[in-house]
Amino acid sequence: MKLRLKKGLYLSLFKISLFLLPGLIAQTSFAQDFMEHGDFIRGSKVWAETCSRCHNMRNAAELRDDQWVTSVFHMRVRAGLTGQETRDVLTYLQASNVKIKVKEPASSRAMVSDTANVVVASGQVIYENNCTGCHGADGKGNVPGVPDFTKKRGVLNKPDKELLSNITNGYKSSGSVLFMPPKGGNSELTPADVSSVFDYIKDAFSH
Amino acid sequence: MNSYRMLKVIVAGVVASAISVISLAEPTVQELAQRLEQMQKEMDELRQQIKNSASKEEIHQVVAEVKQMTAAVSGADEWRQSDTMVHMSGYADVGYTDTKSRGDSFNVGSFSPIFHFQYRDLVLLEAELEYEVDSNGETETNLEYLTIDWFLNDYMILLGGKFLSPIGQFRQNLHPSWINKLPSAPPGFGHDGAAPVSEMGVQLRGGFPIAGLRTNYAIYVSNGPKLNAVDEDGSMELEGIEAEGSGSDNDDEKTYGGRFSIFPVAGLELALSGATGKATVTSLVDEEAGTNEFLSNEQARDYDVFGADFSWNYRLFQLRGEFVQTKIGAASVGVSASEAATWETWYAQAAHRLGMTKWELIARYADFDSPHDSEDQRQWAFGVDYLFASNVIGKVGYELNDGLKDSDADDDRVLLQFSYGF
User: Is ipTM > 0.90 here?
Assistant: First the structure.
């Protein structure tokens, strides 16, 4: 009888310690830095690779920035994201959360003239850092709803003015349910960067 | 003579012009009075306007106030950074089913609101309710899951409550109607199938990188399922597994389980899952009379689940598959003592988006084996989806079902469904 009681006590203590252990881990590793910013570029890649695993891609403009916080934390639980991936995806979605305003195509020449006296990153570097998440390194599109740049009579046959405007102001391809946010969601891209990445896309993928 | 005539004309012209000038240049006294009155009116209006208009000082003051207000409004973003956030999402679907031998009917699949309450990046409360209208028109309400998730660190989330079973991928990630590409669940993955639906207990889950590869994990301890048995003329048989997390553990035997998945390349997920524990019969029904029988001295039986699943996304193409086997051991004592039983199911599903259109084609094959012949089912399902938006989907599906002749499992079906994830 005494032995059974002792055994039960030890078992209970073991179970309680199992609950306390995560608490001890949390004390040392939990960062009270709500909400720390993540990395836009990594976020775009995680978003493109992870979300379409289960469901259709959702547009960043579907929710308000604050609603994305809870929604992305919910997805952290569902999709098994790490904390860093969660912050990265949230940063990407909030930065991309811009309503697309369709504007008249801007003058290609005017855009290029803005590049004067500005240090411009290589178009390839800009593409790899900002566009590959959705468009893929080969330009064929990584997620459903993204056009294949390499198609013979594809989107790159549109006039340069229109394409530059689409990159700058955001765009929704006909038939697609997915929006591309202005400048791919990276508002820090300058007109010179846009021109540079546009030149790279044309050189690398158009026939 | 000519000069006399000319003089007359000139004199006449001068007199006429003089008369006209006089008549134009000199208005009558009455006209002058009217003009004066008009001018007086305009002057009064002008005086009134000057009286009403603000001074320069007043204008400066107003401008300053507007600036202050603009700054206050632009700075009033505390709602964006509140410690506690509330969010509601969920999904709903309506549909129509035409079954070969039982006719057609409209139906409401379910309305499933999901509530999220979050405190900073520390805790998230998630709860999903499920409202359904049954064939009698009555509304059923179920708590699909309710968990409080504690974000311990970047790699660990400890959650407690009623949670969706981490065995496989369909129940925990794919069952919402706006995510499931076909209007129906694969046989064996619905309620009372081969795959567990939910658990009541504690779960630790998250993701971490191993040698540059992403991984996911989930481990849990729960009350485990309950078993149903039937009495067929004195012969006992296991009827089904109630694998929906219940709030009591009759046999005091816990179930332990988990899932581990790895992503060898982007877009490909490979996973294994399993659970083990004990389960006890809690309901015995006399099949002929349809009444509940008394249970006594029931033995806790072995309960073992094994699952394997994968998903692969490549541009517009998606391929996924899943296998789940649930084994219940034999019992030698107790009223419901009977032999062991095994439930097993698997499916493979391919989906392809048609280029830059909103159309998607889906095909699925599934095979469900149960201890009861009437439930066994092999199914080919084909579907066409139209994406009104990413989360608003119209579906048409056709199921070719092969089961026991004249049973429900053998009925082919046409299904229409309109689903909305919000």
Answer: no
